[in-house]
Each structure stands twice: as C-alpha cells, then as structure tokens.
Amino acid sequence: MSEAAARLDAATGSSELLDLDGLYRQSNVDTALAALEGELVGLIPVKTRVREIAALLLVEKLRRSIGLEADPPPLHMSFTGNPGTGKTTVAMRMAAILHGLGYVRKGHLVAVTRDDLVGEYIGHTAPKTREVIKRAMGGVLFIDEAYYLYRPENERDYGQESIEILLQAMENHRDDLVVIFAGYANRMQTFFGSNPGLASRVAHHIDFPDYTDDELFAIAERLAAGMQYELSASARAALHEYIALRRAQPNFANARSIRNALDRARLRQANRLFAERAAGITREALVTLEGVDLRASRVFQARSVTP
Length: 307
Fold this sequence. Notes:
The chain has 16 helices and seven strands. By secondary structure, it is of the alpha/beta class. The strands form two sheets. Strands 2-3-4-1-5 form a five-stranded parallel β-sheet, sandwiched between helices. Strands 6-7 form a two-stranded parallel ribbon. Helix 3 (29-39) packs antiparallel against helix 4 and helix 7 (125-136) runs parallel beside helix 8. The mean pLDDT is 89.
C-alpha cells in the first residue's frame, strides 16, 4: 500500500460503507434516465451507454468526496446516426445528468450547425465561434452535422479556424463545457480522421441505430397520443404500410419522418371535417385519425416521390 493510500485509509476507514445510492438519488440522475426512457422508444444500446457514462461519473464523484483526487474523466462525445434517431434528445438528457453530478454549472443545451460557427469573410469566424462557446459555457454544446466544419477542398473556407477555437475551449474549459459532435457515421469518421487533435479529445462515441418498423409504429402511437389523437383501425393499417414504403424512399428521417406524416394526416383530417361540418362533428371524429387521412399521402400514390 502506498503512503498516500495508507493516509487515506486511516482518514476514511477502509471498511466504511459509502452511500453511492444516496448520491445517485440526490443528483437526480435517476430522473434524467427515467425521462430518457420515457421519451425514446427502443435505442437500447444508446440508453445502455448513457447509463454506463452516468455510472462512471457518479463513481468518480464519490471517489472525490473521500479525497481520491484524479484528473476529471473526459466528457466530450460523438453521436453518430441517421436523422431522427434521437441524438438531440439524448444530448439534452446528458446535459441534465452532467449538471446533476456537478460536472457543469447550468446543464443547458446549445444546439448549433456550421452556419452558427463559421463566418463568410476574414475576421468573422472567431467572434461567431466564441459567442457560441460563451452561450454554451456551463452546459453542453451540440454541433449537428459537425463534418461540415471541415472543407479541405475549399482553400478559402474558414471552418478550420472554428475547429481550432473549439479545440482550445474543449481543453481550457473541460471542467465546465462539454462538446458533442453529431452526424452521419461515415462522414464523422472522416471528420475525426482529418483532425487528430479533435479525435483525441473525444472520449465517448455513441452510435444511434435506425428504428425498426415496429419501433416507428410505437413512436407514431406515442406522438399521436401526445397530441390527443387516436388511430382508427384503418389508420393503424395504413400507418404500417406507410412506414414500410417511406423507409424505402430517399431522405427518410426515422422518427422525424413519422412526425411529419402525422402532421400532414392532421391537416387532411381537419380539411375532411371542415368539408363535413354541415352534418355536425362528434368528439370521436375530432380526435380520430382515419386511414384516408394517411393514404392521401404521395407515398401511396407515387412511391418514388418523397411526400
């Protein structure tokens, strides 16, 4: 046993029970994890990884509480996956977890893209990037489609300047700022491969899988219920068909495409009810989406055309 460990053992007592569960409840991490479970269907690998990171941070906080000092665990992350797979939602919950455990002061999320960081002329990029970093301090900076920051084919592009400023902030403010880079997996791999300094600062890589058809249907049911709509039997049958057809078309965006489909179905339902207004409308009709409201989509009429 080292001298430092012996002193720590004498001060705390090696057999003393430490209340990790109490720290867990006190930090409200359980609330953030429960919210994540309630908000997102599926994504079991993602939720598992978030819980693992939360456990690491919780144990690290307990270690510090008894005097076991070490460098803080690296927290910058990469979220990879197709659109509509829940990356922003998970980032919001991760911010709440980090705040609950005291790793950031505020726990807010600032979501940006290249346009928020990179200027169009000399001297424009640095103030834009620094202003975004300033807004994100004490929380999480979420950079979507982060690979657009790096455009080596354009000699006059200012994205590299933004990356260098981000690198400085990630190192100098790592005790009060967490940066999450997000985007398509293959493009993110190229992005990090072209920026070794950036790659070395990102410790946690989480991949977001596409939803299955059954998961997308469950998401649609949850979204409809949240908007206080019900799906009739004909609507449920149409939705199952819609999901299979829409997935095969270009620009499919998982849960985002499903939300868009429901929004358009609501529009069609409203117009249908308005056309039938003279006969009167029941409450049941007002809250029910029918198969016809979904089947009017161009997905069914022309499968090669995105609705």
